[in-house]
Amino acid sequence: MNSVIQGQLFTILSETAREGGHYAGVETIKSRLLPWLGTCFSSAISGRPFETNLSLTQDSMEKERQLRKFANSQTFELQELQKELTSTRLQLSHVQQDLTETQLALEDTKAKSATTLLAAEDEIVQLKAALKASHAQEETALRNLDCLNDYEQQIQILKDEISILDAQKSVLQSRLARSRSPSPRHSQSRSPSPLPLRSCSPGRARLTNASRHAYLVARFGDIYAQERLDAETLLRTYISDMEMVQRIIYIAAVEAFRAAKMAYRHFKMRVRKTLSLGHSGPESLEDTVLDYIVRHEDLYDVQASVNEVIRSMNINPKISFPPEIDFIVISSLIRELCRVAFSMQTLIPPLDIAFGTDGELFNETKYRRSFDSDFTAPLVAYHVWPALIENDVVIVKGEAVTKRGALWSHRSRSRSRSRSRSTSPLRSHCLSRSRSSSPLRSGSPINT
Predict the structure, then answer these.
(1) Residue 383, SS3 per DSSP
(2) I need a labelling partner for 310 at 20 to 30 A (CA). Which of 74, 118, 248, 413 fits?
(3) What is the DSSP pairing of strand 367-369 with strand 398-402?
(4) DSSP 8-state symbol, 361
(5) 410 neighbors 356 (Cβ within 8 angstroms)
(6) What kind and span of H or E run contains 425?
């Protein structure tokens, strides 16, 4: 009866052992219970020796030891995993905290951006309003400028009308004087040496030609000695290159003479056209025109010539100027040169300046060498002041800088870039030396 029960129990435990795993107590059943049950069962049935049970017991103990070792290792790994899980949870907590702070910072940035955007929109509105006001001011300024141009045109028309009326007045006065003067026969009977008639006398311009010639030559020298140095000092505050400063002054002088000669021709044409309508008598029309110009030199629009000179200098490739400053800073020098050049055209013969180019052969009859020149160099590097000539003869020397290395290519380049002059360039050798090495000086103006 007991053996039957043990056999059934053994069968049940065997089935349990086959279906279970390591953590279901199968190994314990196999190592401890089954050997005893098997021993009892086998002893009752087959009668095997007891040594087999002993070996099974030893195997069971060894497996139990391995099981404990495996369980310990699993426990250690579980603890390590728990530590890693704790560390991961801590890191996750930090990350969540950083995320919260980042979200707060983002919200703050959004709020600030919204405020900045509102301020920028307000500023844009203000700038648009300011731009609109500027456009309105610009339109007003343009309208005022148009009105000013109209006024200037009206003033010029009035000046022309005044000059025409003055010319007509002069003609009428001349006719009245001739109508009131006695006949030549009656004059001879009254006086053995009669005074010549006004119509037969030379014009006022011819009578004052010598004195005006001396005054203008002296004035040209004064400009070289005073106004030129003042302009040079003024330019040195903006330009450190002395060569560029001297080039600017020389080109200003050349352009001033060109503009003044052009203005003189136009003025003379207008006067001739006006006086030719009522001219009569033995006095030539040319003398009458010249007398009128000498009497009315104040009608010369010198400011227009100054503006023309500045425009020409702005496009001259040989000179440059700081962008924040204009050549108008030397307008006083340009104005005096234009006035002198205009008055020199009323002389008989007129005075002009000598034509000069960079790289030309130095001519001692036309120029003096500057103090910083190479006195052995044969070529002109650049000009400082133009020479004054009369009928191709130098009467006042100019000034030039001579240096070695002044290439002939400079001459061709300057010719290709130079602007057309109002008259053809003078290309003739000086026939005699200057009548005076230094300009004449005279402080008395011409009596007109």
Answers:
(1) strand
(2) 413
(3) parallel
(4) B
(5) no
(6) none
Nearest to 383 by CA among 407, 355, 351: 355
pTM (whole model) above 0.85: no
Rounded Cα gap, residues 250 and 357, in angstroms: 11
Query: Could you tell me if 408 and 371 are in contact, meaning their C-beta atoms sit under 8 angstroms apart?
Result: no
Phi, psi of 321 (to 5 degrees): -150, 150
Radius of gyration of the chain (CA): 58
Q: Which helix (H) or strand (E) holds 223?
A: none
Return phi, psi of residue 441, to 5°.
-120, 130
Measured CA to CA, the distance from residue 103 to residue 97 in angstroms comes to 10
SS3 380: strand
**Pairing assessment for the beta strands 351-353 and 393-396 based on DSSP bridges:** unpaired
- Give me the tens of pLDDT residue by residue for the chain, a chain 448 residues long: 677 777 777 777 776 666 655 555 566 666 656 666 555 545 544 545 555 666 777 787 888 888 888 888 888 888 999 999 999 999 999 999 999 999 999 999 999 988 888 888 888 999 999 999 988 999 888 888 888 877 877 787 777 667 667 666 766 666 566 566 544 433 333 333 332 333 334 455 666 788 899 999 999 999 999 999 999 999 999 999 999 999 999 999 999 999 999 999 999 999 988 888 876 665 688 888 888 899 899 999 999 999 999 999 999 998 987 887 789 999 999 999 999 999 999 998 999 999 999 989 999 999 999 998 888 899 999 999 999 999 999 999 999 999 987 554 444 444 434 433 333 333 333 333 333 333 333 333 333 3
The single residue listed with the structure tokens 């009497």 is 295
d(CA 265, CA 260): 9
